[in-house]
Amino acid sequence: MSTHIKEQIKESVAKIISTKYEIDIKASDILLNLTKKEFEGDYTIVIFPYVKRLKMSPAVLGAELGQAIVDEMDEISAFNVVAGFVNLSIADQQWKQTLGAYASDDQLTTLPANGKKVMVEFSSPNTNKPLHLGHIRNILLGWASSQILKAAGYEVINTQIINDRGIAVCKSMLAWQRYGEGATPESTGIKGDHFVGQYYVRFDKELKAEYATWQTTAEAATVLAEKAKEGQSADEFFKAYKNDYFNEYSILGRDAKEMLRQWEAGEADTVALWKQMNGWVYDGFETTYKALGVTFDKLYYESDTYLLGKEVVEKGLKSGVFFKKDDGSAWVDLEAHKMDEKIVLRSDGTAVYMTQDIGTAMQRYADFGIDKMVYVVGDEQNYHFKVLFTILGMLGEPYADDLHHLSYGMVDLPEGRMKSREGTVVDADDLVQEVIAEAKKANDERGEIDELTAEEQADTLRKIGLSALKYFIIKVNPQKRMTFNPAESVDMQGQTGPYIQNAYVRVQSILRKSADYTESDYSAYETLEPMEKSLMRSLGEFKDTLAAAAENLDPSMIANYAYDLGKDYHKFYHDVRILKAESEAAKCFRLQLSRTVAVVLKDAMAMLGIEMPERM
Predict the structure, then answer these.
(1) Where are the domain boundaries for CATH 1.10.730.10 in the chain?
(2) Is the pTM of this model over 0.70?
(3) What are the b/e assignments for 475-487, b being 16+ CB within 10 Å?
(4) What pLDDT, in 10s, does the model give residues 231-247?
(5) What's the gap between Cα 561 and its chain centre?
(6) What is the mean pLDDT of the chain?
(7) Which one, of 366, 371, 326, 321, lies nearest residue 342 by Cα?
(8) CATH superfamily of the domain spanning 5-90
(9) Rounded to an integer, what distance in angstroms lies between the CA atom of residue 453 and that of residue 466?
(10) What does each C-alpha distance from 32 to 13, 40, 80, 83 come to in angstroms?
(11) CATH class of 428-607
């Protein structure tokens, strides 16, 4: 039999039902949940699925099945029936055996390798601005998902596609060329991505100034008079500048578009400037990723991939997947999939984002032979990915059924939304420093790590601060919009990373104090405390939680599990004597239980990218 009690119960119940009632059933079919706190028991079997098939009342079937389980399994000490549920109580002797099994299980927090390869794409920033709070949610969700999938048995490849081309990048380049006066990140002491981002903001500032001047011209008077007839004010006209003022009247807009044309033509000086400024940005990005503990296995660049997919479209036109309109543009008809038509190639033969994404997906499959692909992208792109996945299915791609969009909501600050062009975003680096400062402020009030060296204090505060940031963001279901509050994130009493870290630190403190303790046999410990059983049940839930988090691509499930386990341990620590236990056997059991809780807490938090301090 399996060493884990939940699996033992499922196997035994399946055997009993198959033999006693002649119903063909597998262990995986058994619905086994934790017993609700208001009822007596540890685990609950849901018997409703069998009541109708056997034409028996829930009470009669429950009583028969419960007694058969008790007779069959020494591990079960008692049962009770509530409606269509059979509540089972685990014998104390079994809990002790289970703890021993957990303690010796070197795969306590992982699932067996499944032989499948998954690629997770996340971050994927633009090179015209630094990483900000919105990127942080993306990065943290992507990294946590990749670590959860790895623990769940997948071979994982982390990737990003860096948006290093286009008009937005040219705006930063043009602004530096016009107003930079030869400044560099080195000469100014400004981090590379922040440095380039300043020129993206500067372009917007200069464009607004240009627009103010333009409004005084005769051309503007004519244009705005026409817009006024259409009910559009001067301010409303400017808000739509991407399609109106920027494209038709702006000198800066004209020059930025010319720079893009030169880049696409491979003009040497423009390409050299592009490489130089992107290099500054990449150095800055790498510093941020290092601070967040994030790495990538493969980088893709839009400048390399933007032409991918054009050949696919040509093949799709021949096979009938795509069709041409009168102007020569290529489209796909998705009406059969309850969507509209979607362009895949412009009339002038240039690619759209959809073309590029089709080609990039195929390139990744050619590069790695992946079985599954996960795109971590904001929910504003939900429709885009629905279309992309449908097209790849229509093209017969072998991985098309295992494409997933990990869609997430926007992150706000207490003071509201952020805007990149106006320079009102919260930079990722500033946010990291802010949460570390909040951790220091909280520690200064308590003085709990004052005995550590300055280096140890700095490392501990870094771990606490990053835990606060990461946990606060990851604990929210990805699909929900959220507000990040730095001060709330470091609260030692709330549902926060530091609160969970503190549970781990308490275990380490106990283990240090018992370092010379050699007792290892707790067989004489007879009657377990309710909190000990509660912790044992929580430990038994981890693998199911991991499997569900991987299946649903929802790191918040691991985050919330870690909080519940940490909260249970805090209660256990307060309510049950550990170092001064009533017997040597009880002390031995509680120390082993504490060690096992610490292992699971540490591994669960590591999946979220969170390190555990030894003291705090």
Answers:
(1) 428-607
(2) yes
(3) bbbbeeebebebe
(4) 888 788 777 665 678 88
(5) 15
(6) 93
(7) 321
(8) Arginyl tRNA synthetase N-terminal domain (3.30.1360.70)
(9) 20
(10) 10, 15, 15, 15
(11) mainly alpha
